Amino acid sequence: MNIKTKNVIEYKGYHTLPVFDSEDCVLRGKIEGIKDLVTYECESASQVAQEFENAVDEYLAFCEEVGKNPEKEYNGSFNIRISSDLHRRMANAASKRDVSLNSLIGEAIQEYLDSIDE
């Protein structure tokens, strides 16, 4: 198990953000970022990580059993909306560097993330 922040739990490439249900006095969560609905529930904070891991393992086992490819949170593809001017400038910059627009945007995002991680 790898805990990235106080609230987000990651396991086998999946993550969750557990929430407290004050009406039922339980902690609940689901695998975030996939279309399949995979949930877990427990009564103690000390059980959350294990219950999440169990839910992921059960999901993966179910997918294997039925011959389905398990969904992945991120597939490396997403759409963005930017101004036409910024689009034009990025396309021109990519052309000047003889790289694809996707490659240039990927590099720019990586540079940005590296700068904020320092």
Commentary on this structure:
By secondary structure, the chain is of the alpha+beta class. Helices cover 42% and strands 17% of the residues. The protein contains three helices and six strands. It has helices spanning 48-66, 84-97, 101-117, and strands at 2-3, 9-11, 14-16, 19-21, 26-30, 39-42. A three-stranded antiparallel β-sheet has the order 1-2-3, covered by helices on one side. Strand 5 (26-30) and strand 6 form a beta hairpin.
Question: Could you spell the SSE succession in H and E letters?
Answer: EEEEEEHHH
Largest sheet: 3 strands, antiparallel
Mean pLDDT: 91
Question: Which shape, going by the Cα principal axes?
Answer: elongated
Portion in strands = 15-25%
Q: Into which percent range does the helicity of residues fall?
A: 40-55%
Give the termini distance in whole angstroms.
24 Å
Q: What is the helix tally?
A: 3
Structural class: alpha+beta
Give the low-confidence spans: 1-5
